[in-house]
Amino acid sequence: MAKSVVDAAGEAGVCVVGGGVIGLTSAIVLAENGYRVRLLTRDAAGETTSAVAGALCWPYRIQPYDDAVRWSLRSFEVLAGLAERPAETGARMVAGTMVEVAAEPGADGLGAWYDAVPGMRPARPDELPEGYGSGRRARTPLVDMPTHLRYLERRLAAAGGVVERRVVTSLGEAGRGAGTVVNCSGLGARELVPDPQVYPVQGQLVIVENPGIDTWLATADSAAAETAYVLPQPFGVVLGGTARENAWSREPDPAVAEAIVARCARFFPALARARVLAHRVGLRPARPAVRLATERLPDGTRCVHNYGHGGAGVTVAWGCADEVLRLVREEFGTAQEPGPPASRP
Ligand SMILES: Cc1cc2nc3c(=O)[nH]c(=O)nc-3n(C[C@H](O)[C@H](O)[C@H](O)COP(=O)(O)OP(=O)(O)OC[C@H]3O[C@@H](n4cnc5c(N)ncnc54)[C@H](O)[C@@H]3O)c2cc1C
Q1: Which terminus in the chain has less CB density within 10 A, N or C?
Q2: Residue nearest atom 19 in ligand 1 by C-alpha distance
Q3: What's the CA-to-centroid distance between 10 and ligand 1, angstroms?
Q4: Is 186 in the pocket of ligand 1 (CB under 6 A)?
Q5: Strand blocks (E) in 243-344
Q6: Using one digit for the tens of pLDDT, what is the confidence trace for 137-185?
Q7: Which stretches of 216-290 are assigned E, i.e. beta strand?
Q8: Ligand 1: which of 185, 195, 238 to mutate, most ligand atoms within 8 Å of CB?
Q9: Nearest CA to 297 among 184, 179, 168?
Q10: Among 314, 318, 305, which residue's Cα sits nearest to residue 344?
């Protein structure tokens, strides 16, 4: 079959904009399926929102829930596989409790998630913190993001993908030559598309020395501006958190940090005395609904948008990346004929 869209090297090409978890996973799935991928990113991976994430595999602050659960289940499967090599990939399977879930099963929109996660069950009273009447217990992927992002970059390079640090000011320009651009610019989509529906939900975290915690615990209230979660990572325990809509600052607030530690110490009293190692603030790229869809740009460039994953980008990344591949292949038809699939490291 003739290739009707070729890049300078004469191969089917895709330009991915964004080098956070969404851009890297999209780029990897495309590159491993034979596309010649160039990824453009303003920030180094370690400087993205993705590097700040907790990062528990659980749908939170993302819409629509039906799609999010489907994407999350695919990511669960991929991350569970990567968790067999935790030092290399940053993914581990860790048991934990999500407290304060809806009284009626499925009333929070996550029924399909509860049904499908292997081993998910109602928490026993002795697994719940004092004052909480319900919760779910499961062994889920928990991802050390700095390690995971480095793994994703290596895996992309192994599949032939090329990463360039560059600010993109036009999706059409970025896609020119390649013919297809995949927009994974997160909060950057607000100016780049431009899409005023994308807005920040600021989250602050405190990293403390681990006083011996080996399970995670989180509250599931998606509407609350102040949450509490405790995520044991190899580099320390991640304590959260906050969810402030339309707050743009990336500066940690000492009073907020103190309140986070106090909330988490209600669950694990030893945290009140744990040495603070670092403070983190990130801006979740929120949107009323994730935009994962195709668009023909005015200059004819094919564009797949993949942004607006709010508080669950790590959770849904691999599921969304599969959808990007399907959209590039099916919606844009046979114009892109990739090379043979690459082997996966
Ligand atoms: C405190 C906190 C805790 C979180 N915890 C979790 C969790 O436990 N589980 C979970 O699943 N998720 C969690 N999240 C959410 C998760 O971090 C995000 O959903 C995810 O990182 C979004 O990924 P992204 O790749 O879309 O965006 P980003 O990581 O922000 O990446 C965007 C990329 O686009 C690039 N870019 C933007 N504009 C341009 C431009 N014009 N030109 C070139 N490049 C551009 C940037 O440089 C960057 O590389 C958390 C977030 C925060 C802040």
Answers
A1: N
A2: 313
A3: 32
A4: yes
A5: 244-245, 276-286, 291-296, 302-307
A6: 999 999 999 999 999 999 999 999 999 999 999 999 998 888 899 999 9
A7: 216-219, 226-233, 236-242, 244-245, 276-286
A8: 185
A9: 179
A10: 318
> pLDDT digits over 296-328, tens only?
999 999 999 999 999 999 999 999 999 999 999
Predicted confidence (pLDDT) at residue 77 exceeds the cutoff of 70: yes
* Residue 175 CB-density burial (10 A; 0-12 exposed, 13-18 middle, 19+ buried): buried
Flag whether the pTM goes above 0.90.
yes
Question: Distance (Å, rounded) from C-alpha 14 to C-alpha 315?
Answer: 24
Determine the Cα–Cα distance for residues 227 and 142; give it in Å rounded to an integer. Answer: 18
On the question of pLDDT at 191 being above 90, the answer is: yes
Q: Is residue 265 within 6 Å of ligand 1 at its C-beta?
A: no
Element (H, E) at 182: strand 180-183
pLDDT at 110: 86
